[in-house]
Amino acid sequence: MGRKPCCEKVGLKKGAWSGEEDKKLITFILTNGHGCWRALPKLAGLLRCGKSCRLRWTNYLRPDLKRGLLSEYEEQMVIHLHAQLGNRWSKIASHLPGRTDNEIKSHWNTHIKKKLRKMGIDPLTHNPLLTAEEQKKQVGIFKETETSLESTINEAKEEDGTLFDPNNVDVFCIDEVPLIQPHEILLPSSCTNSSKFLQDLHYFPADFEWPSDSTTTVTGSSNLSLWDIDGFSSWDLLINNDDDSDRKLALHSSSSLPKTWF
DNA sequence: AATGTATCCAACCGCAATACG
DNA sequence: TCGTATTGCGGTTGGATACAT
Known about the structure:
Domain HTH myb-type: 9-61, 62-116
Strand order of the largest sheet: 2-6-5-4-3
Helix content: 40-55%
Low-confidence stretches: 1-8, 156-262
Largest sheet: 5 strands, antiparallel
Order of helices and strands: HHHHHHHEEHEEEEE
Mean pLDDT: 61
Shape: elongated
Main location: nucleus
Strand content: 5-15%
GO molecular function, one term: transcription cis-regulatory region binding
Oligomer: single chain
Subcellular location: Nucleus
Structural class: alpha+beta
Keywords: DNA-binding, Nucleus, Repeat, Transcription, Transcription regulation
């Protein structure tokens, strides 16, 4: 026995909602709550499936929704959350009160993506966009990787005759946002003073609070702390100024930072 | 004014996760 | 523990509107 469809499709309305339907849905939910979405349309006198009702309510009719375009601040939030979370629109939406995942997803696809591309940033990876020449190079590197992987597989097969599943080889995952590890963060030696370096670090997302003295010169090894206003995460920075070579910035936290922040 | 093209976004679809008996 | 129902999520579509020719 197969799974029953979520709703009986025959005779149900599809497409744009009328004002009358909206009214019925709002009135019903405000007096009874939504309860079981599957049962709701019948109880509310609507010729829609429960799923359609849920979507209409959560994306459009909920009284706590903000309408209108996203503010500059909200856009920045979306960009930096996307760098951390990828296309997890509902997670991103949960950090923006009054905004829905659908709304953010739409805004991302129609506005932010273009904006980032114009700025020379790849909206997928949040890294600088590659020139045609760099793309060619990368394809070359990828092919090399593929070839070496193939030869590794073949060698393994030849050596012990065991089955080698290439899907289990941890080469890369396109699903993951590239993250920067503490040991990857280097400051160029041309960066002669720490105050400049600390100013540069203000490119951290806007909702990170900076210590009031963060623009002052730091000598020797110093510690700095950053907090996300939402309590989303916090970072401790250890700045090592002792060395003449490239300065090192160490981050002590439970996770890594998206590369787009650097 | 008419037609074609681009853009926007609400709504839909299918799959995955979770709840429940 | 398992199978089914329900809900949530992300990708995609299609109609309305704006803009260009």
